[in-house]
Amino acid sequence: MTERQLLHTVARFYHLQVDYQDGLSRPRHAPVEAVLRVLQALGAPLARLDDLRDAYRQRRLALWQRLIEPVTVVWNGQPLRLKVRVAAHLAQTPCHYRVDCEDGATLAGELPDERVCARASKAVEGSDYVIRRLLGSQPIPLGYHRLYLRIGALEAESYLISAPLHAYRAEYHQAKRWGLFCPLYALRSGRSWGVGDFSDLDEFCAFTAEHGGHAVATLPMLASFLDEPFNPSPYAPVSRLFWNELFLDVERIPELERSAEAKNIMSSGFASEIQRLTHLPLVDYRALAALKRRVLEALARSLADDASARSDDFDRFVAAHPSVRDYAAFRAKTEREQRSWLHWTAPNRAGTLQPDDFDAGAQRYHLYVQWQCAEQTEALRGRARARGTALYLDFPLGVNRDGYDVWREPGQFALSMSGGAPPDDLFLSGQNWGFPPLHPEQIRRQGYRYYIDCLRHHMGAGSMLRIDHIMGLHRAYWIPEGFAATEGVYVHYRAAEFYAVLNLESHRHQVEIVGENLGTVPYYVGTAMARHGIYGMHVAQFGVHADPHGALDEIPAPVVASLNTHDTATFMGFWQAEDVDDRVALGLLAAEPAADERRHRAAQREALIAFLRARDCLDDDASAAAVLRGWLTYMARQPDEFLQINLEDLWLEPAPQNVPGTWRERPNWQRRARYSLEEIRGMKSLSSFLRALSDMRARIS
Description:
Layout: H1 3-13, E1 16-17, E2 19-21, E3 27-29, H2 32-41, H3 52-65, E4 71-75, E5 81-87, E6 95-100, E7 106-111, E8 113-124, E9 127-135, E10 143-151, E11 154-163, E12 177-181, H4 198-210, E13 215-217, E14 225-226, E15 230-231, H5 255-258, H6 260-267, H7 270-278, H8 285-304, H9 309-320, H10 322-337, H11 346-349, H12 360-386, E16 390-395, H13 404-408, E17 417-421, E18 431-432, H14 442-445, H15 449-459, E19 464-467, E20 475-480, E21 489-492, H16 495-509, E22 512-515, H17 523-531, E23 536-539, E24 559-562, H18 571-575, H19 578-585, H20 591-614, H21 624-636, E25 642-646, H22 677-681, H23 684-698
Parallel strand pairs: 4-11, 12-13, 12-25, 13-16, 16-19, 19-22, 23-24, 24-25
Antiparallel strand pairs: 1-21, 2-3, 5-9, 6-7, 6-10, 8-9, 10-11, 14-15, 17-18, 17-20, 20-21
């Protein structure tokens, strides 16, 4: 083999995709040095190209000597079906197995050969190997188990996941469903403290249910760095295992009644400062978090000084969730250091914290607020379900490199890499998202424990879950440190294992799964989603054409359909081509192509108006408000499974919540909703439209 062929072969052994088409349908060839860096991160014994031949031999031999994969999947409780690799002299040796089930039961017996693959016989480093395909007879109960194999003197074990083939689907025998979307930080009410909280989300759910809606969607509500380091993005959380205490409704916490200290804090100019911050157009995360923390710290001290049933409940919560104490210590240490854990002393970086490494009061604060977050989110879910309204939560793809999860589980992440995306129409230079991707082999060796814990955290609070960038279950674009986003490499994961975990947890929690499959999506992702009963997403804004007869793409099934997302222009921004203007202002679009874009957008508008009129969704009024309602009316009449409406579109909000690819250039994740929940309740035309839309959905069979 040539050097390049050898590099490609070694890359394939490690599930790397070196040559691919980017989002512009252009062939890409990852630089050799970038491929080497990714291979090193995956554990390949490579320092330079000269090591390729030895690396090839070692990896090839290791794969043939691996009796069984570290994770085994069984669908729908079927019997075991295994592929094992053994030395040729063991080709006829009986295979004995034992399954230790998670409920304590044991299954055991002999696995007969389904067939021996003679064509797979290989001579590797002077020894002959064969592949045997084994088929059991005992059904494997659903759950997480351990599988043990013995063939002669050869023994091996594997995590065994027995999962439903399809994700959970709620049974609805009435209307086709619809729901509203708004980021929690953007919600506001007359009683909240400058930022939306869990009670505001509860009120939003009640409003939606009263109008016949079935779900409320929001952005990730996970813990964030709101001091130093500072990063309020919901897609760069400190952890995917803990909630953001900024969203607590402090006035709903029982300790407030008994805490003189907290009441004193709230009586000395506190209310006026909250009012000042509430009336700012953008959320001042630092100031609001600091104000809220003063009161929450006082409540935590009050609880510690009071032996009561409440303090007993707190102690039981901490005892039942040991990771919360660890997380609280990490946050307290970060606050003392005021810098990333990557710059701590070696023992602290390695995950060891002693009591004198952090302030005990800070740890107590973080323990207390997570307890309260657990109480309020559990109550929120219960009230939403009682109304028949699902909480539709968002599961982010990554986690902050400086955060708790990466510190506690560094082996689960490729720390010298960043996740991202190759160039496409919107990002000609590609994207570097900054967070470290999961290591595909380390997560398997752990039996996906970290991923399972993250899912359980979200599914314990919601009834629908959006999986951000579901392509990440199949492959991730890795960018080595020091390389441009155009020079990344695709690393493939064991998608079936991810889907097995996802489906099993979705059934156990009765949570429906939605996969964000927008953008450049390989065909096999859609195939897998259909096979596993996972909803896709359809964004109508992406399917508008300048043809009056076919102005809108058909809505495929089954999907969550919407006009836009938090990462796109709002309806009004799209209608007025403000997204085009913004790209010009950011230097992403030159004057001439921008003029072409505006002309095309004008043609799209005219085609959309004609299309909606032809379908009795629009009369002579072609104002933006009329077109919005006509477009939503058209979508409401379609048989798609779920229609999601951006709350802010209903009053023609022009500004988006996020402009992807910007950080300092645009105030992402900070803009409040223009109207309070009380004001929204008073909008009679808005309420009338939602009730009419709900009636339309109810008439669809």
